[in-house]
Specification:
CATH topology: Na+/H+ antiporter like fold
Largest sheet: 2 strands, antiparallel
Number of helices: 14
Radius of gyration: 24 Å
Helix content: over 70%
Shape: globular
Order of helices and strands: HHHHHHEEHHHHHHHH
Strand content: under 5%
Number of domains: 1
Number of strands: 2
Structural class: mainly alpha
CATH architecture: Up-down Bundle
Length: 365
């Protein structure tokens, strides 16, 4: 049973994140240290350097031969259920669209397991809980965050590749005055009406551009290289050279802190502290703490999980929002205000929610 000492350990793990958030917020809102352009550069530093190296480091140090594939299967099935529900909503609802489908998937499925999940699960279920949460984090980084990155790149490339043409629809008499002798001349047309038409890139051309951008993004292959090394190192008992290990570690250790710092900067640039409003905040929390665990519970029963593994699967699905999902949302310009609010308030309310889940699931045998 989780006690006050365990609650204190969770608080100890979370407070440093809010300290980094506070520094980022204050550096812009109160101390005016960074300009808006510099803030964008900080987010790019996090997105393209610290997070890929962080992802590589923790995936490279697991033992893939000891993973619980039934647990991974339940986790995968839960996400496929959510994808199916979101796709049905996007097709059948008048409010459904591609942009909100991406964000809803992030809110339902992507968790901050390493920072919040491990301190919470360890006192509840011990070493087996920690091991399963790490496994879920690795699969999330390799498959689901990579998939999120791909669809975000697809969306942005499609927008950038849209060709807008302007053609005159009707125009009146133009009055052009020319003054010679090196003086000023006045391209003046009155009551000119034009028609704007947009042409999308052909699908194969769009996919070509997406893949070219995707393969040069370190987030798309950092985890893949990491898990590949994990297979090799555990198969033949190899270790990374100390210089390589140190070079990766020095940047990866800054990953979570700089991500929270970037989130604080983003909050400071908004007019309101909760820039997405209370309704979207509640929407994000419902998706995170109810829809995600519900899908996991269904999947866990379907694949046959029982006992503590079943309980751990449901609880890790209720862990707060992934910080990486915010960094990607900020970089690609899609509902970053919703994701930042989900991360911040999710970590605040997660402790009582996860304890409640723990107490309820204790009755499941």
């Amino acid at each position: 049973m989780i006690g006050w000492e365990d609650v204190y350990k969770v608080i100890v793990a979370v407070v440093p994140l809010y300290f980094a958030l506070f520094l980022g917020y204050g550096s812009v809102r109160w101390w005016n240290i960074f300009t808006r352009e510099q803030c964008d550069a900080i987010n790019k530093l996090v997105c393209y350097f610290t997070l890929p190296l962080f992802a590589f480091e923790f995936t490279a140090h697991i033992d893939p031969f000891k993973m619980n594939f039934l647990f991974i299967g339940a986790d995968t099935l839960s996400k496929l259920i959510i994808v199916a529900v979101i796709a049905l909503w996007a097709k059948c609802s008048s409010k459904g669209n591609y942009q909100w489908s991406i964000t809803s998937f992030s809110l339902c499925t992507l968790t901050n397991s390493l920072v919040v999940g491990i301190p919470m699960v360890k006192p509840m279920y011990g070493a087996i809980g920690v091991d399963l949460v790490v496994q879920a984090s690795v699969v999330q980084a390799i498959i689901w965050l990579t998939l999120l990155l791909f669809v975000l790149e697809f969306r942005r490339t499609g927008i950038e590749g849209t060709i807008t043409t302007i053609k005159p629809k009707a125009s009146s008499v133009s009055n052009v005055m020319m003054i010679s002798g090196g003086e000023e001349s006045k391209d003046v047309e009155a009551n000119n009406i034009v028609e704007y038409t947009s042409t999308r890139l052909p699908f194969f051309e769009l996919m070509k551009r997406v893949w070219l951008k995707f393969i040069v993004n370190p987030n798309s292959y950092g985890c893949v290289i990491g898990i590949s090394w994990a297979f090799i190192s555990n198969r033949w008992n190899l270790e990374l050279p100390s210089m390589v290990e140190g070079s990766i570690s020095i940047m990866s250790k800054a990953g979570t802190g700089t991500a929270m710092f970037s989130m604080g900067i983003f909050m400071a640039l908004q007019e309101k502290l909760i820039s997405c409003g209370p309704s979207l905040t509640l929407f994000g929390l419902v998706l995170k703490f109810i829809a995600g665990p519900a899908a996991m519970a269904i999947s866990a029963f379907v694949v046959g999980l029982r006992g503590d593994v079943l309980r751990i699967a449901i609880i890790q699905a209720a862990v707060p929002q992934s910080i990486t999902s915010f960094i990607f949302a900020k970089e690609y310009g899609l509902h970053a205000e919703v994701l930042s609010t989900a991360v911040i308030f999710g970590m605040i309310v997660s402790l009582p929610i996860l304890v409640a889940y723990y107490a309820i699931l204790d009755f499941i045998h």
